[in-house]
Structure formats: C-alpha cells, structure tokens
C-alpha cells in the first residue's frame, strides 16, 4: 500500500484481527452485489469505502423518489437514473481507486458462471425468490460464499452460506418453496434504518470473509426485530428432502 492508502485506512489497520493483511485482501477482492436497492446500495457503500478493489453491480431498475428514504447512496438528482449507473458514479466519487462493473440487465441474462469464477464473495440483495433461487444455485455450483439478506416492515433476516467450505444446508433447505410470492415493500412498507442495518451487516460479513477476521458461520440464520431492536439466531440443518442439494449430492 502507498502512503495515501495507509492514511485512508489507518483506523481499520489498527484492528489487530485485520491489520495490513486484511486490507490487502480487500484491495485484491472482487465482490458481486446483486441488487442495489435498499440492501445493496448500503452494502456497496461500505464495501467501497472499506477498500474492496472491485465491485460488480447487477440491477436493471431505475431510481424513484420513493426509494430515497432508504437508498442513501442516491440523491434527488438521481431520480430517473438507472440504479447501477448512479451507484457506480457515486461509489467511484468516494473511492477513486475502486473498479466498478455495472450490469444493467436482469440476473437471468447475466453471465453468472464467468462472474462467479472471479468473485470472492456474492451479496444477494434482491427482492424476489426467482432471483434468489437462481443466484444461490449458481453460488452452490461455483462454491462461492453467498451473503443473503431481506427486510420488510420492521423485520429483517441475514444468512451466509459458505459454499466454498460446506455443501449443506443450502438456501432451499430454508425455503423449499421458492415461489415468487414474497412480501413486497411496495405494499407492506419498510423503514430505512431496518433495511440499512441488514445491508450494513452484509458488508460486515463480506469483509470478514475476505479478510479472515472474526467468524462467519455457514447457515446461521439471524432474525432482526426493529420494534424491539433484538436479534434471534437459528442454526439451519440440511433438509434430507431438499429438491436441490439432496439431488445434487446424491
């Protein structure tokens, strides 16, 4: 690292579990962020600010004024812009050494096999089960660590699958019926700090995975209740009748 980088990241470098080796690991890392709405824009902001070398952002939506209370990466002037285009510009303005690839297309049209071949961590920040299923299956095959989160109303959940280390359980052990009937923020509401907290935790899990600091458990489901500001944890187990991983490992 040069003198400017040592100064910029000096507070992170003071952490004994992180140190120079952790910072260099971030600098060399490639993180794929699928969805740059409420979850992804916050996660991407912290990853870029922390010094992750490359981000690939995937989203095909545009910014609406109703997004602004929770999607803090965007400004009033970005309303009507493509999210990944605005995100790329705003992130690179914060960190000029950052490399950002912006893919303006649905997930099913993205070259996932090629992307995951170079990705160190994948963040699932979507709002529909169709994309979640596609992404988790691709990560399981590629053995790419997947950090998934969701938020609705006052509630959120976070789970990391270490597909690079373990094969069970998988996302479909948790949600065996991945039909596109998920609750929508458009009809059920969401509070900005709730979704922002989950996006922040996604960034934290990614940084720990990349740097080797701390502990990131496979299949540990964390549930957040914003009304009481409390967390619950559940250890997931492999579903022997899972349509994906049972068939895959048989």
From TrEMBL:
Keywords: Nucleotidyltransferase, Transferase. GO terms for cellular component: cytosol. InterPro entries: ThiF/MoeB/HesA (IPR045886), ThiF_NAD_FAD-bd (IPR000594), Ubiquitin-activating_enz (IPR035985). Signal peptide: none annotated. One of its GO terms (molecular function) is nucleotidyltransferase activity. Residues 9-243 form the THIF-type NAD/FAD binding fold domain. Pfam families: ThiF. The keyword Nucleotidyltransferase applies. It comes from the Bacteria. Belongs to the HesA/MoeB/ThiF family. PANTHER family: MOLYBDOPTERIN-SYNTHASE ADENYLYLTRANSFERASE, UBIQUITIN-ACTIVATING ENZYME E1. This is Molybdopterin-synthase adenylyltransferase MoeB. It comes from Maribrevibacterium harenarium. The lineage of its organism: Bacteria, Pseudomonadati, Pseudomonadota, Gammaproteobacteria, Oceanospirillales.
